[in-house]
Amino acid sequence: MARPTRRGRAARIKARTDAPILYKPTLNRNVGPVNLLSEEGIEKIHAAVLHIVENIGVEFRDASALEDWRKAGARVDGERVRIGRDLFMALIGYIPDGYKFHARNPERSVDVGGANSIFANCYGAPFVYDLDGIRRPSQLADSQNFLRLAQMSPAMHVAGVLPVEPQDIPVPERHLDLVSSALTLSDKPIMGSVTSEIAARDTLDMLRIVFGEEHLEQNVVVTALLNCNSPLVWDETMLQSLRVYAAANQPALLTPFLLAGASGPASPLGGVAQLLAEALAGMAYAQMIRRGCPMVLGVALMGVSMKTGAPMLGTAEPGLMNLLVGQMARFYGVPWRSCTMWSGSKMADLQAGYDSANAMWPVLLGGCNYIMHSAGFLEGSLGVSYAKWVQDSHQLEGFYRFFEGIRSEDLEPLLGDIAEVGPGGHFLGTDHTRENPFVVNTLQNNDSYEQWLEDGAKSAELVGAEEARRMLAAYAPPPLPEETAAALNEFTQSRRQLYRA
């Protein structure tokens, strides 16, 4: 006699994945933010920031930037720039408190700033942990796969541009493949290349092909990630790219990469004061290029192991520092960015889960607006795992639901249900239960042990890899007008030939 087919987890996944994707809009947080600092504490950090920029100074290793600062009235000694507090605060005051981030599909556009949060793709890892869990150098095909996965993930708002570094593409032309891939494989907001001034200009030219010159001039259609060399150095490459994007009224995430105990003090208060001075100095400079250009205060925080010097992720002190940065960003009236879902683990294991969750909670509770690396990172951000990426992207939907907060509802019908069910009954059959299911992560196994064994006793890593394979097989590119696609291809090919000449 044939054994009856059991409709379990596989059937639930099929029912979910056969349905159209219900994309999540910008998360409007109704939980938090957590404020750790008193007014006195805020003023203490602010005073430290002003002391750093005014008396210690920040190096701008770029001749044009030094001349701009000199003309603005800052004290320039070699490459060291000391910015008077009045000039510093006046420039910060031009930065908008938020902006709309336009996608080529208007339905995917999102809002940055205020009580809004968005989740963005991973960025820049040189290695991948592939669908078989094998660690290897990343390639363009991997970057394109993670863009496809981002397109298909309901709560991943920003597809990005550089999920992993494609080691098989020469650096001078790498940005051409990455930006064109982001614009064709996804219709969500994208990020821009910053590897050189040429790469930044090419990015904007490709965006003009897709969005049009006038639309780009009047709207934010890209956000670039620019890293400060902590402590207290902005280098020429980052500043050249910053000028390109700011001149076009496109924002950047001005981000110190602070290793507490190494490139910054092993102190939450001291480290936050330093990174604020670094980020805000870059944001202030952008306002000299174009007044009122949107900018984002960036944060990339890690602790450092005193045993090995290696970065530690998901630990308590960086979490506290994210809460402090969030409160200070609100004090300065600027949106802020941070990093999450990363781990020092070398596989998608229990440590990876702990590290990722411990990184995400303080960032969201701190009111972060632009949340980078929202899926996939392992190995201290050096590698991206397909399996973990998919598992993390499903976790985002749970975080999204939590921070939506409590929904208003009429209690009177529920009191009627309680009266009808009475003592000892159950609510499984009520209309309310059927119409208001909890958010369910279909990749998590809540079956009995026996059912789990029967289904193959699969680990979370294996389930994530299987789902990644399914998603990539089911991917369909979002529509792009043929003439736009042709113009984009013509541009990239002509530039490629130029760089190879």
TrEMBL record:
Record keywords: Methyltransferase, Transferase
InterPro entries: MttB-like_sf, MTTB_MeTrfase
Methyltransferase keyword on record: yes
Entry's Gene Ontology molecular function annotations: methyltransferase activity
UniProt similarity note: Belongs to the trimethylamine methyltransferase family.
Protein name: Methyltransferase
Source organism (scientific name): Ruegeria spongiae
Protein EC: 2.1.1.-
One of the GO BP terms on file: methylation
